[in-house]
């Protein structure tokens, strides 16, 4: 048994879709969340910069005595997970491998689509992870840079979001995929739009749920679970705009968020 | 005469629309540009964070021995100009006051619209600057957060950009403005779309040109102009992704960009 909290970081607010799954699957665990709202987004930035940011984010979480770190951000998982795992003592879990597992289990034809930020798609991280499990799989990735600002503007479900989705998803429809990985933490809020455009024969994968399941396995394996009777506490830290985080974050989490503090992340 | 360069900073690449005007109006001046591409965008972030970033950006430019600083970013101009001017020895010029002057000169009815980031519109900086010159003016501001990602995606002029513009500009059309300030450095690339949606009776104002004219006046007033025979040099610094800056920046500047270096801005 280990009473230390789980640490979760993301480029901003989207990682709360992962926190939501952890709360469901590991209801006895305390969580410390860090959202890098001063430097968001990560998706359009270079690998060197993402690695630097991911280490600062992780050092901050370690300063809160976490027993494991979940990299909720797909871009940071794609670009920095190996580096983090090599030099950090506690287990570090990303969202790519769990997402790849879920996609391989769901796909019948082996034609799997991936959508995400420029950084995630450019890294080919999902492609490599899926090919390890299923070498014959045909993977087609497509970046969707406007999806995040659409969700943050509250325009998911509008005519504009359908038009943008049709434009981005066309190359994926053309090759007749049967499974689509929603490879960015904001995309679960566009599930309906993406589902409508892709049609009901395509299974949409949200890596967040699978990530929470992998976290559970690792905690069990290493004897790191909390007391099952623990009444969990959730603390949130951001590098900018705690008020906006509280307001918009409630949408992602479907519950009120309090207990938010601002952090100068560049010091870590 | 003063042979030192002009310093220009922006949250990223958009400030090149201001550089373009400075090159035209002050062709003998050397320019050092800094684009904060590691922390872009500024428009959705808080005043405290923008002030901190603007001071780091300015300290970097001062380390390059600039004789004046142009804050090309509307959000940074709106939120940090006063603070910068108070503590920096060289002249610091923003884009808000020049934009306000141009709007007041252009407007016949006094009904003036402003579009920009959440930060710029929320600050009411344009409104205050216009009211000082023209107290009876009626100002209506509207944030357009999706315009920047649309331009960066290269989607200016597409059906999506028209649909988004119609949505954002509706409240401005409803009140029958005759002048519209394009209060974000990316927006000049949407001039055609915004012009089509607003109609030809509305004059669009790009503060960049007026800012370059104000810079020229200040240099003359203080005897800081360069030798008219000087063959100008242009140097570019970014906090991330010099390659992308070079590629996308050429679009903004209509000329090839070389001489780009990466800077660790958090050290300044």
Automatic annotation (TrEMBL), chains A, B:
Residues that coordinate or bind substrate: 10-11, 42-43, 74-75, 185-186
Alphabetized UniProt keyword annotations: Cell shape, Cell wall biogenesis/degradation, Isomerase, Peptidoglycan synthesis
Active-site feature positions: 73 (proton donor/acceptor), 184 (proton donor/acceptor)
Annotated Pfam families: Asp_Glu_race
Alphabetized SUPFAM superfamilies for the sequence: Aspartate/glutamate racemase
Keyword Cell wall biogenesis/degradation included in the entry's annotation: yes
EC number(s) recorded for this UniProt protein: 5.1.1.3
GO molecular function: glutamate racemase activity
Reactions the enzyme catalyzes: L-glutamate = D-glutamate
GO biological process: cell wall organization; peptidoglycan biosynthetic process; regulation of cell shape
PROSITE patterns to which the protein is assigned, alphabetical: ASP_GLU_RACEMASE_1 (PS00923), ASP_GLU_RACEMASE_2 (PS00924)
InterPro entries: Asp/Glu/hydantoin_racemase, Asp/Glu_race, Asp/Glu_racemase_AS_1, Asp/Glu_racemase_AS_2, Glu_race
Pathway: Cell wall biogenesis; peptidoglycan biosynthesis
Gene3D superfamilies: 3.40.50.1860
Family annotation (HAMAP family): Glu_racemase (MF_00258)
Family statement: Belongs to the aspartate/glutamate racemases family.
Its job: Provides the (R)-glutamate required for cell wall biosynthesis.
Protein name as catalogued: Glutamate racemase
Upper taxonomic lineage: Bacteria, Bacillati, Bacillota, Clostridia, Eubacteriales
């Amino acid at each position: 048994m280990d009473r230390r909290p789980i640490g979760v970081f993301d480029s901003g607010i989207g990682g709360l879709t992962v926190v939501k799954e952890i709360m469901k699957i590991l209801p006895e665990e305390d969580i410390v969340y860090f959202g890098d709202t001063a430097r968001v987004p990560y998706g359009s930035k270079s690998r060197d910069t993402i690695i630097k940011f991911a280490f600062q984010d992780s050092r901050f979480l370690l300063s809160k005595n976490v027993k494991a770190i979940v990299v909720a951000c797909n871009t940071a998982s794609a670009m920095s997970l190996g580096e983090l795992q090599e030099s950090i003592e506690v287990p570090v879990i990303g969202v790519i491998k769990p997402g790849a597992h879920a996609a391989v289990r769901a796909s019948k034809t082996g034609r799997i689509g991936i959508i995400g930020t420029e950084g995630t798609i450019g890294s080919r991280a999902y492609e490599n992870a899926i090919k390890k499990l299923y070498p014959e799989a045909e993977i087609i990735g497509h970046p969707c840079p406007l999806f995040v600002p659409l969700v943050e503007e509250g325009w998911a479900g509008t005519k504009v979001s359908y038009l943008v989705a049709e434009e981005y998803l066309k190359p994926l429809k053309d090759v007749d995929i049967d499974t689509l990985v929603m490879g960015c933490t904001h995309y679960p809020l566009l599930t309906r739009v993406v589902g409508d455009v892709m049609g009901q024969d395509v299974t949409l994968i949200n890596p967040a749920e699978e990530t929470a399941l992998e976290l559970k396995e690792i905690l069990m394996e290493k004897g790191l679970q909390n007391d099952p009777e623990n009444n969990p506490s959730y603390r949130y830290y951001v590098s900018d705009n705690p008020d906006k985080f509280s307001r918009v974050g409630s949408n992602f989490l479907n519950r009120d968020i309090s207990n938010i503090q601002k952090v100068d992340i560049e010091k870590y």
